[in-house]
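tool_call: predict_structure(chain=1)
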Amino acid sequence: MAPLVSPPASVAAASAAAVAPCQADVLALFQALLPLEFFWAALKQAGVRENNRVYHSAVVVWLMICQRLRAPGTLESAVLELRGLSDSFWPHPCKRLEQAAKEGGPRLSSETGAFNKARHELSRPVVEHCYDHAFTQEIEQAQLAPDRRPAFFFDGTTMRMPHSEELVEAYPPTSNQHGVSHWPILRMLAAHDLYTGLALRPQWGAVNGKEAVSEQGLLERLIDRLPNEAIVVADANFGVFSVAYAAQQRNHPVVLRLTTVRALHLSGGSLQDGTDRRIQWKPTREDRRSHPDLPPDASVSGRLIVRQVQPSNGDKPFLLALFTTLEDPAEQVVELYGKRWNMEVDLRSLKATLRLEELTCESKEMVAKEIDVAMLAYNLVRAVICRIALEAGVEPRVFSFTKVKNVLQAFLPRIAAAVDERTRRKLSDDMEYYLKRCQLRKRKRPSYPRRVWPKPRTYPSRQA
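tool_result:
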């Protein structure tokens, strides 16, 4: 098996801190952030015994990442990636690998059964531990400016899944006046850093049924994964007392957009452009009804900031009301919330570029692992962007996620097939050259409102 990166032994043992800022190889980054020794420790911590085999946990996680980063993302394409992996994945190869390495020996099977079985046997606690460990290192290495703190925007989305008995029970389909939908659906809450795009491990739950959970309820679980003193930024759906109180209890500042009704209630009067006043936010009867565990003296001290803003789509200006516990100047707080569009772009990258809009697994456990590994793949691309941005001296957000992912998809198989070190280094240099040219173009604001043409339906929808 030809090594994919050089030199494999040192890569497997290297710590994340040893990764050069200009290194843009996703596999090298994966092995640096999550070396084999870490997988072994995670398996031991989870109480999972794993035999020496071809599809051990590190190999399975990497192949599942390849499914997201490279088209077409099927089990068959992932199994074919196995031939290009370096020997560093198997420091002590099993008998099957030793036989396959010999000239004229039996080749590894191209069937998907063994890989699929290994995916189902993959420990979910190990996957979660790997995700959190990699994220911690990635956010530390992002090297934000000294005057910046990590600021995570929270936003929710939904995903469809295949129709299976287990998933229908766990995530009931939506119903309307036309009947019950065919597809199970879940609600996922994501939290992405506004400066780097790096994402926390998400939280999700059912949209419908007895186990249905709101986005605010998901936030109260997800917030515990935030880095220390990270800022919570969210739109009006999260501009409620329970979110502000949950963040305060965990020492996280907030920047929350308020609905006009809630802002008027907190201001005690009309909303005026230029308002920046201190308020004491106390729960209403409705807040206490939905959160009966709130203490009698529960309150959050902060500021009400109101500014007239101009939407980028050319609509009429409107008054933006924010509640914040930051002491920063009001203009900086408004500017921070103004980065919220980055979250919309991130969700589009997840659902369209990484194909997370519709999941493919048919069991609740596999759905969880599919989401976590897909988000891990997303963070690896974001970590590459942070490295090339640091090298170029620009903001990570000026790079196109899709363009970077496409360059990686084009070059990594060629690097894997390189016949010698010189060719491999030349391809790596070329890849880095094109990665640095994946910056977004500065577009002029359109002189007309944007509209979307509806897609025609050739056939009528099938009724459940």
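agent: Residues 364-392 form the longest helix (29 residues). Proceeding to next step.
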